[in-house]
Design a protein that fits this description.
single chain; alpha/beta; 2 domains; Solute-binding protein family 5 domain-containing protein; peptide transmembrane transporter activity; transport; SBP_5; signal
Length: about 280
């Protein structure tokens, strides 16, 4: 990326998300983006095993039930659901799913996968950051049709779509039921698949995760970068050195250290993005 290397001051993958979409004329993604972060969650790329901070990279791998815009609003365009409605009693939510989403292994995403993912998230062994909210709200999840889901709430809940989006954590992210049950949870965690614009190519726990672009993604088309590597680099001085030498293209940096980088003509992004 040369002189066009970028850095953000804190949570910065909203910048990456904003650059995933390209024009339909590009035949294939190109190049590599290396991101150095002090930490990136539990580093287990499975929705019900990852904490909220991990959604910064998990959003590249998975599709959430309810999509969001770049400014943090719910959207029918970027998630699995094209529409959602609450019944007059406030206890029943119906979600209609789009029928053109496939997982990285080619299997179609259906209401069965959404039901499976929500129930995995509500299981006692789940460790996601906001599962307490789901457990307090959801009574049952029912598949009405292949692309229609009905969720019964324990009490009137206006915020259920919000909690099943990717705006807070990983709770709304969808994993494939058939594949997960076939290989088992342990094997799935080692080689997870979702339906996002990137798939997991390689990872080393506590060190890095390497993502590879998916061609012709259902939402964004062709991602900009062929590969994205996210490295865990706890020491800020090391991250800054990596940026200056070109070993990293994007880093997180404290407010105190940002002026020196600005003086060297690096682009600084102060992120208030709700995508993270």
């Amino acid at each position: 990326m040369g002189k066009y290397r970028r850095l953000m001051m804190a949570m910065l993958l909203c910048f990456l998300i904003s650059m995933t979409g390209v024009s339909g004329g590009m035949a294939a993604p190109e190049g590599q983006l290396v991101i150095a972060l002090p930490d990136f969650g539990n580093q287990v790329p499975v929705p019900w095993q990852e904490f909220a901070f991990g959604k910064s990279y998990m959003r590249l791998i998975y599709t959430a039930l309810v999509g969001t815009t770049d400014d943090g609003k719910l959207s029918p365009d970027s998630g699995a659901a094209t529409k959602w409605e609450m019944a007059p009693d406030g206890l029943t939510w119906t979600f209609w799913l789009r029928d053109n989403i496939t997982f990285h292994n080619g299997d179609p995403l259906t209401a069965e996968d959404v039901k499976f993912s929500i129930e995995k998230m509500m299981a006692p062994e789940a460790v996601a950051s906001y599962i307490g909210r789901l457990r307090a709200q959801i009574e049952s999840v029912e598949v009405a049709e292949p692309h229609k889901l009905v969720i019964k709430a324990k009490k009137p809940s206006l915020f259920l779509p919000w909690d099943l989006s990717d705006i807070q954590g990983t709770e709304g992210m969808i994993q494939p039921k058939k594949h997960t049950e076939s290989v088992g949870d342990e094997a799935f965690a080692k080689a997870p698949i979702g339906s996002g614009p990137y798939k997991v190519a390689e990872r080393r726990h506590g060190d890095f995760i390497k993502l590879e672009a998916v061609d012709n993604h259902w939402h964004i088309g062709t991602p900009k970068y062929k590969t994205v590597i996210i490295k865990k680099v706890p020491e800020e001085s090391t991250r800054i050195a990596m940026l200056k030498t070109g070993e990293a293209d994007v880093i997180s940096v404290s407010r105190e250290r940002s002026p020196e980088l600005k003086d060297e003509n690096f682009n600084i992004f102060n992120s208030s993005c709700q995508l993270l």
